[in-house]
Amino acid sequence: MRWRGRGRGLRWRIAALAAGTACLVAVVLGALVHLWTVEDIRSRGEARAFNAVYSAMDVYRRTGALSGGAALDPPGLPERLRGPDDGDRHTAYDDRVGAGPSAWAAQRTGGPGSPVLAVQVNLGPELSNVPRLDAAMAVAALLALAVAVPASVYGAGLLARRLGRVAETATRISAGDLDARTGPVAGRDEVAAIAATVDAMADSLARRLRGERQFTADVAHELRTPVGGLLAAADLLPEGETEDLIRARIRDLRGLVEDLLEISRLDAGAEQPVRVRVPLGEVVREAVARTGFGAEVSVRDAAPVETDPRRLERIVANLVVNAHRHGAGPVLVTVDGPTVEVRDHGPGFPAELLRDGPRRFRTGAAGRGAGHGLGLTIAVGQARLLGAELGFANAGDGGAGGGGAGAGGAVATLRLPG
Known about the structure:
Oligomer: single chain
CATH architecture of the largest domain: 2-Layer Sandwich
Shape: rod-shaped
CATH class of the largest domain: Alpha Beta
Pfam families: HAMP, HATPase_c, HisKA
Radius of gyration: 45 Å
Enzyme class: transferase
Helix content: 55-70%
Structural class: alpha+beta
Main location: membrane
CATH topology of the largest domain: Heat Shock Protein 90
Mean pLDDT: 78
Number of strands: 12
Largest sheet: 6 strands, mixed
Low-confidence stretches: 365-372, 397-406
Keywords: Kinase, Membrane, Phosphoprotein, Transferase, Transmembrane, Transmembrane helix, Two-component regulatory system
CATH superfamily of the largest domain: Histidine kinase-like ATPase, C-terminal domain
InterPro entries: HAMP_dom, HATPase_C_sf, HATPase_dom, His_kinase_dom, HisK_dim/P_dom, HisK_dim/P_sf, TCS_sensor_his_kinase
Number of domains: 3
Distance between the termini: 23 Å
């Protein structure tokens, strides 16, 4: 769902970029057309005035008559054309209000001090068409924008959907689904390259993880036989402190081997839950009693749940044992509907565990005791198999859910489905 929201944002950002680009192009193009049109009208008007002065001067010098709208020293003549130093023709543009913007051309009729013959060409009718041209350009820009925005939204939607497939695949892989693949993606662009890279990365990661899981399973399986032999050999030892110490270490080793085998089966997906309807409170009490550790069990709601009681007992037992080994008493176990909460009053979970979750062979802070770090890993795997949610937090001054390790202790919350 988060990616879909980002996909929509990407789509509209691309559409906004396309719309902004279209508007910028329309403004620049409209300004250039406007300036070019006005300059062209002025240039053509000055050329007409220049030619008109040439014809009028020829008639004036031959006959002394004024023709073609020519006048001698007209009152509206721009100042720069009133006294040219030479006898050449000169032009000027006059935008003063009156008859309208005009192009003037002037030439002195004789030597210095002689009258100036000038012709005025009114450019008002032609310049009056410029606003209509601007309006037409604006309408064309709006039409282009109306076509460009939906087209860009559609194109961005295609891109967002393709990227969404890749993102969803990466999310599934990060969540532990090693069989997730994007598959063939249309096109040969960067998105297709990213999809192929993600799939290749998933293949490589899956091969490595399967190899590691197989290695763990093989090692654990091979260790079962010598560990069994050690237990049998320990029975031959004479009773005493040495025999008890050896038996305790062998039992620890056997527990480690069994934990490794359980983790390998969970990783391989070889386990299947057997669901029955059981009273949650009674199952939790039995699981706590079998640990051999003392814990206060409080049942607020004894509603039955449908789950695998053996796996549920395994989860609760691991949580209680972890609370005693790495925390401090009293350990409180609370059953409320389909939720089981195990809380101790020790230093709390380390920040790394809260951030990344339990990791095998890592127990966190030294203050939380020693161990193999497999108990919580097995609990998380069994909870996932049951479709339950197992969360970890620290109890702050005001209750559970504190952000860091504190005097309130560690809180593990198991939420069963239904």
